[in-house]
Amino acid sequence: MRDLVRETRLSPDRFVAPLFVRHGRGLREEVPSLPGVFRLSPDEAVSEAQQLRSLGVPAVILFGIPEKKDENGSEAWDDGAAVQETVRRLKKDAPELLVVTDVCLDEYTSHGHCGVIRDGEVDNDATLPLLARAALSHARAGVDVVGPSDMMDGRVGAIRRALDDDGYTAVGILSYAAKAASAFYGPFREAADSAPTFGDRRGYQMDPANRREAMREIALDLEEGADAVMVKPALAYLDVISEARERFDAPIAAYNVSGEYALVKAAAERGWIDERRIVLEILTGIVRAGADFVLTYHAKDAARWLAQG
Which entry of 69, 179, 265, 300 is annotated as an active-site residue? Predict the structure, then answer.
């Protein structure tokens, strides 16, 4: 009876699995603060994506670890970079998989910030054309969706114009529209080696206390041409997800971020919680709040558990 009348149904086709990629072959380096999450070479990323697809997970999002960094993050738009190489391999070897790429400069800049630095501050407008160049490079590689995560004002419009002008009108934009300046990102920054070398990102990421501002940010990104919008992180922002679902007739994603994952894994390793039940309850709660799909490091495990019934 409970199954028959269940209001929120969780399934693997709601998951997007994040993958960290770097150049190499046969490379599979576990991230210490993210047990079960690896830095992968392109060939290993293809193998991982194929396993995910066999479990019913329809999509991955790629984050790049560069060979070199500089002030402007120029490897972000290098057609030979690890993300672009992985996209090409995935479209060849797993063509049914939806491939999303993160578009940001923080992994690629020597200072670790998401934009160009002028006089010790991130220059919003100077960053926009560089983000557009990165998105175009991903489009040339064959990506399905680009995900700008930098939180620069106007970047969705700049990317949409650049893609359309070069004929990539079918490439979608998943905008990190309501991305908070959160303490939950620490393990990700270790995985991607993207922590700022000075200051922090509060100048361009959102104040966690501001829900009305989050709605304005989402509305602006949709006006600029975003095809879907994201709330990040998920667990401390379920009210933001819920209000966004009520207010906007657009696909809404939520990112179940690295810190949320690491807390669960640490408690599970100590035997303090039932990992399977906790994970499925968390993911159900995110979907119940209104997310159409969830970016989560739990994707593979959750898909297996759901298949077991």
Answer: 179
Residue 255 near residue 238 (C-beta atoms within 8 A): no
Q: Give the chain's end-to-end CA distance (angstroms, integer).
A: 15
Dihedral sign for Cα 37, 242, 14, 223, please.
negative
Q: How far apart are CA 221 and CA 229, in angstroms?
A: 8
pLDDT in tens, the chain (309 residues): 988 899 999 999 999 999 999 999 999 999 999 999 999 999 999 999 999 999 999 999 999 999 899 888 899 999 999 999 999 999 999 999 999 999 998 889 988 788 888 888 888 899 999 999 999 999 999 999 999 998 899 999 999 999 999 999 999 999 999 999 999 998 887 877 777 776 666 777 889 999 999 999 999 999 999 999 999 999 999 999 999 999 999 999 999 999 999 999 999 999 999 999 999 999 999 999 999 999 999 999 999 999 997
232 a catalytic residue? yes
Distance separating alpha carbons of residues 308 and 235, to the nearest angstrom: 25
Catalytic residue among 69, 91, 232, 265: 232
| Distance separating alpha carbons of residues 146 and 225, to the nearest angstrom | 12
User: pTM higher than 0.90, yes or no?
Assistant: yes
179 included as an active-site residue: yes
> Torsion over CA of 71, 77, 199 and 173, rounded to 10 degrees?
160
Place of tokens 């599979």: 28
User: Which domains can be identified in the chain, with CATH numbers?
Assistant: 12-308 (3.20.20.70)
For residues 268 and 72, what is the distance between their CA atoms, to the nearest angstrom? 40
